[in-house]
Amino acid sequence: MKRFQMILPAVMALIMVVVSACAPAATPVAPAEAAVTQVAEATSAPATEATADETEATAASATEAASVPATEAASDQAAEPQFQDFDPKNFTNPTVIDNQWAPMKPGTYWAYEGTALDEGNTVDRRIEFSVTDLTKEIEGVRTVAAWIEDYNNGELAEKEIAFYAQDNDGNVWYFGEHPEDYVDGEFVDAPTWIAGIADAKPGIKMQPDPQLGAPSLFQGWGPGVDWSDYGQVDQVGQKTCVPVDCYQDVLVIAESSLAEAGAYQLKYYARGVGNIQVGWKGTDETHEELKMVEYKQLSPDELADIHKQALELEQHAYEVNKDIYGETTPMQ
After folding, report:
1. CA distances from 227 to 118, 150, 187, 192, 194 (A)
2. Predicted structure pTM score
């Protein structure tokens, strides 16, 4: 931002006038979304008269936005996320997930490695994501179960079952998750949310044809555990190389949450493969950076192993999370 520190006061004053004149009017809120909007408003400071520093930041932001290339979204992604209308009748064959950006064929396995910051210390990260052959009915839709293991410095930090489905329009929806956190090998917490229980809602993880400039969309809503992730297209047409391969025409989605204003995790997607890289921007404190190091179809024995582990985790979920997970029907 240093290159904007010499902006003339007159230019800054002009921008203040323009920003003030262009401020959007308040948008009516549908009753069904009132609770969501209240949470979003609670995370925003009330409007105040701009200080000299804020004016300079506004001038810099306006100048940067004007110079953003066509393949990247403007840096200001503060627009309030939206919910996509959910209709369980629009899921005719929901377990066939063939979205070009996020295909999820049972038996597919991705592994990512990189680093992140934990209380200022750099930790080695590894995440393994597998699509199981298990399904689970949630909100009247049969979903596909994913099995995820998360390691810090070689030690298991989390294991999780998560639930996805594709609608008739090609959108991949997220229906909830049961993650279990571990410290020194001991179970410590399970911040579970499942759509349809305790005011939780499903959201869209990936659209069939994501476009720059499209509104940010909630990827789900789990108010009981403060889960409010949302995503927006950040870049298109990028080239990215990871240990597995180099990919053209890469899509980048910027993800954040209502509790992390200004902090974004960047997820890179390649057609026909899915997520290949993770980065960050803004005020994200973890600085997590991951690259895909393995991508394959599991052998029958490997698939049977994650099938077994996922069922074992679900059994534990029924024991430790009776109020939420205990209200669901078993995977099959």
Report:
1. 20, 18, 20, 9, 11
2. 0.79
